[in-house]
Amino acid sequence: MQQIQHILRKLFSEERIRVDFSVKGGTTTLLASFAYLPIRELLNFNINIKEEYRDILSELDVAKGLEPVASLLLKGMLSMQAGHDDATKYLYEAQKVQVTALGYSYLALCYFMKGDFDKSIQIYSNAITDFPKEPYFYACRCVLNRCLDDDEGAFYDYQVAKRLDFNYHSLLEWHEHLSYLETLKVDQLELQELESTWEQDPERLDVLTKLALEYVHIYDYQKAIRLYSQGINMADNQAEWYVYRAAIYSKLTLYIEALEDCNQALSIDENCVSAYILRAKLLECLHEHDAALEDYRKAASLNPEHTAIYEERASLFERLGKFEDAIVDYSKLIALMKDDFYPYVLRADMFERIGKQEEALLDYNRAIDLNPYYSDLYQYRAAIRESLGDKVGAESDLQKFEELDEE
């Protein structure tokens, strides 16, 4: 295993190789650990790999404990990073041995590197057929559809990717703004003032915090990550700085790096609630639901009045089909946010799903009391009243919905 780890260190970042390179692992975790998006700004290949190409290839031939398909995939990735034409040969051989998500990912990336976007899109489409629940492939195809000015195809892929994992919304929004980052920066006077203040006094962490956040606001996530990294070096083991950086890594769907930062934050401060919450969300993205729920439980034990815990956990329960558990958490959220209409809407939806229409009606009533000008609430309540046989009430609500919608 040490020999394999030695090889992996030459092909991937230190954070990524904490997961075994095995096709027996979870598909989502393997993609998060060892796949790359077809976005050149995110490709951090080893620039010295060409000089070591032959030696690493020989090491892979004799490496013990490596599955045959994994060996071929690594040879393909090695050849791609080194710029050798053998890459596609190894990767097609790997797919013949066993069709894998990583195989599709590397093949598509290989053609992307060659500038053959049409072929790359074809491979991503095949991957979507075989792995329809993996948002990664829709995001990759979205990026290339944008490159080919296929707005309709790109929009479809964007919608599916963000529905499967909302972080892909942030990733694709960032990608859309990449070419405008310098223009966006020019228009931000506050950012420029913070830059000037920071240059004059680079020891001020309060300025660095604000500056990094300004870069987040203009979608320059990579610059924000670099600034948070500076903060980590300066802050002398402050857990929150790792959480800040992890949050931006998650926006770029760099989940392994984000998890490592959350783990580091918790090694500094085992009571860091924000790290538990963020790590839980990351674990959910990797389909490690039990571990995610355990992190939410720990966060709630540390700070039982932290509203984000119950909202995020209820959302997870909802996706798992555990509607009764979601209702419990939304009820806790309501207790903490009595004057906010939205938790009532969330709980009403859960009541509807388990057939408790009367309870749902009461929640919509309360939501409308708190926010009588939100038109959609009347449409939601109209559907409930209709299902309960109150046609007059339903018609009244629909009329109110239309009035507010016109305004």
UniProtKB/TrEMBL annotation:
<dbReference type="InterPro" id="IPR050498">
    <property type="entry name" value="Ycf3"/>
</dbReference>
<feature type="repeat" description="TPR">
    <location>
        <begin position="341"/>
        <end position="374"/>
    </location>
</feature>
<dbReference type="Pfam" id="PF13432">
    <property type="entry name" value="TPR_16"/>
</dbReference>
<keyword id="KW-0802">TPR repeat</keyword>
<dbReference type="InterPro" id="IPR019734">
    <property type="entry name" value="TPR_rpt"/>
</dbReference>
<keyword id="KW-0677">Repeat</keyword>
<protein>
    <submittedName>
        <fullName>Tetratricopeptide repeat protein</fullName>
    </submittedName>
</protein>
<feature type="repeat" description="TPR">
    <location>
        <begin position="307"/>
        <end position="340"/>
    </location>
</feature>
<feature type="repeat" description="TPR">
    <location>
        <begin position="273"/>
        <end position="306"/>
    </location>
</feature>
<feature type="repeat" description="TPR">
    <location>
        <begin position="101"/>
        <end position="134"/>
    </location>
</feature>
<dbReference type="InterPro" id="IPR011990">
    <property type="entry name" value="TPR-like_helical_dom_sf"/>
</dbReference>
<dbReference type="Pfam" id="PF13181">
    <property type="entry name" value="TPR_8"/>
</dbReference>
